[in-house]
Amino acid sequence: MLPLLIAPQIREADAYTIAHEPIASIDLMERASKAFVGWFINHFPDKDQAISVYCGTGNNGGDGLAIARMLDDHQYKKINVKVARFSDKSTPDFNTNLERLKKTSISISEIHPGSGFPIEDCPLIIDALLGTGLNKPLEGDYKRLVDHLNSLDKTIVAVDVPTGFFADGEIPHGAGILKADLVITFQQPKINFLLPESGPYIKCWEAVNIGIDEHFVQSLHLPYLAVEEKDIRKMLKPRHRFSNKGTYGHTLIVAGQPETMGAALLSASACVYAGSGLTTACIPQSGLTALNAYMPEIMAIVRHDMQLPTIEWAKFSAIGIGPGLGKDELAVELITDVFTNYKKPLVIDADALNLLTIHRELWRSVPENSILTPHMKEFDRLFGDHGNWWQRIQTGIQKAREYAVFILLKNDYTIVISPAGKVYFNTTSNPAMAVGGMGDVLTGIISALLAQHYTPEEACILGAYLHGKAGDELALPNKINVILPSQVAARVPLTMAKLLA
Ligand SMILES: NC(=O)C1=CN([C@@H]2O[C@H](COP(=O)(O)OP(=O)(O)OC[C@H]3O[C@@H](n4cnc5c(N)ncnc54)[C@H](O)[C@@H]3O)[C@@H](O)[C@H]2O)[C@@H](O)CC1
Ligand SMILES: Nc1ncnc2c1ncn2[C@@H]1O[C@H](COP(=O)(O)OP(=O)(O)O)[C@@H](O)[C@H]1O
Ligand SMILES: [K+]
């Protein structure tokens, strides 16, 4: 897992690396700038391109000065540097890099408080005004400069973070923030890059390694982590000889109404594809023909009108409940029945979440370590409205602990929050997956993983990763705009096979 540090911890880890590698702070800046330039050259190989580098007078500005010098060394010959002298303060590494830059032929100009802004005729701007040292929303000269740069419609590549963008914590409404086409960020994506609020400001980002001490970072036991492919490869268990369908569990999917049978079909079929040894769907009688025709591998427990079905609880190694279930009286009775009789962790999705919102008393019987899979609206219905995603995560941490459940908050970067307060960011999935029914497939996958004896934590992390990765494999190679949930479900075995190879 890649630990995601918040700004003060980034400073701490930088300082530790400087003291213990040991490396001089100016040399760490040199290393960071070199890593930036490596990526930059890949993206912008045209050395005749005119580039303006805007620098503040802190360490982000210091990076900008070093980057300008290095690009010059790489024969980018149309570079100029503009230093925003909005404060008397400057860092020692900024000063050293300014002296180094003065020894080159690069033109350096200054922007002063209250002055007008220089004419900008370069199509490409490198933003090294402010980085993770941002401590309040931009105002005054910085805000005016950022608004001005935003109005120019240039290509903007930000160093570490776009100026004015908070790396973590709440992003104030209406803050002046530079809109970057690309952010080349140091060591790790900043947490706010992974939240929807970054959408208007960051088109894409790349994290480059600058050699921050990894042992130190791991020793901090940080709550925020990004899931990496190597974690998934370690977690996934291959099937072994002499195993049989009983080895891989029996999953029950409680889902569907006559009008929303599709949700039950998607969820139960995803469960089969994700490797559940046996799958049974508890569905309304009117859906039985559809179920048998759609996937004969799935067995059925039929719900007759307003009558609770008989369920042999001990048969099932996992239960997923909610997709397309509806909110009528029978649904309430059914969810109560499941919560009362089944004591192992459940996967609770869609209408089952809505029922938890309406009938708060149901919370008392949610089995410990169950997995709730809300999207943003379901989350807010459950736990109250939130003005931003940072707040939503903090509420998630609190509620996961309070109810002893896992909360999988669906998003572009799906967030898994454990009762112990860990927050895992999933890095797979793409916008082609924004299609109704995609969440039903996820529920089926996670339920199947529980049935196969993955822990609830592993089932959440693996489930979100596999679901997104299957979607990525289908959509990304040909830049396909829309993929169907049923395609994602059917792709899961191949995705798993690749990860096990
Ligand atoms: N040794 C290190 O610590 C390293 C730092 N690096 C760079 O250093 C950056 C952080 O540098 P700094 O901590 O010097 O901070 P910044 O360069 O981000 O900001 C400079 C100063 O601006 C002031 N400031 C903050 N918010 C402001 C606002 N709203 N309006 C006006 N002024 C404001 C603060 O006093 C801050 O210290 C990183 O983003 C990264 O680019 C890299 O060189 C890697 C190594
Ligand atoms: N823009 C997107 N980028 C990445 N993943 C997405 C995007 N839109 C949707 N998804 C994924 O698709 C799923 C949608 O779930 P959900 O909203 O519950 O769908 P439904 O209720 O229709 O089944 C989630 O797993 C989510 O992560
Ligand atoms: K910046």
Automatic annotation (TrEMBL):
InterPro entries registered for this protein in UniProt: Carbohydrate_kinase_pred_CS (IPR017953), CARKD (IPR000631), Nnr (IPR030677), Ribokinase-like (IPR029056), YjeF_N_dom (IPR004443), YjeF_N_dom_sf (IPR036652)
Reaction catalysis annotation: (6R)-NADPHX = (6S)-NADPHX; (6S)-NADHX + ADP = AMP + phosphate + NADH + H(+); (6S)-NADPHX + ADP = AMP + phosphate + NADPH + H(+); (6R)-NADHX = (6S)-NADHX
Stated name of the protein: Bifunctional NAD(P)H-hydrate repair enzyme
Record family assignment: In the N-terminal section; belongs to the NnrE/AIBP family. Belongs to the NnrE/AIBP family.
CDD domains according to UniProt: YXKO-related
Assembly information from the UniProt record: Homotetramer.
Residues reported in the UniProt entry to bind AMP: 410-414, 439
UniProtKB keywords: ATP-binding, Isomerase, Lyase, Metal-binding, Multifunctional enzyme, NAD, NADP, Nucleotide-binding, Potassium
Binding site for (6S)-NADPHX: 59-63, 131-137, 142, 160, 263, 324, 375, 440
PANTHER family: ATP-DEPENDENT (S)-NAD(P)H-HYDRATE DEHYDRATASE, ATP-DEPENDENT (S)-NAD(P)H-HYDRATE DEHYDRATASE FAMILY MEMBER
UniProt: K(+) binding residues: 60, 127, 163
Gene (UniProt): nnr
Matches recorded under HAMAP family: NADHX_dehydratase, NADHX_epimerase
Cofactor(s) this protein cannot do without: K(+); Mg(2+)
Cofactor annotation remark: Binds 1 potassium ion per subunit.
Primary role: Catalyzes the dehydration of the S-form of NAD(P)HX at the expense of ADP, which is converted to AMP. Together with NAD(P)HX epimerase, which catalyzes the epimerization of the S- and R-forms, the enzyme allows the repair of both epimers of NAD(P)HX, a damaged form of NAD(P)H that is a result of enzymatic or heat-dependent hydration.
GO biological process, alphabetically ordered: metabolite repair; nicotinamide nucleotide metabolic process
GO MF terms, alphabetically ordered: ADP-dependent NAD(P)H-hydrate dehydratase activity; ATP binding; metal ion binding; NAD(P)HX epimerase activity
EC number in record: 4.2.1.136, 5.1.99.6
Pfam families recorded: Carb_kinase, YjeF_N
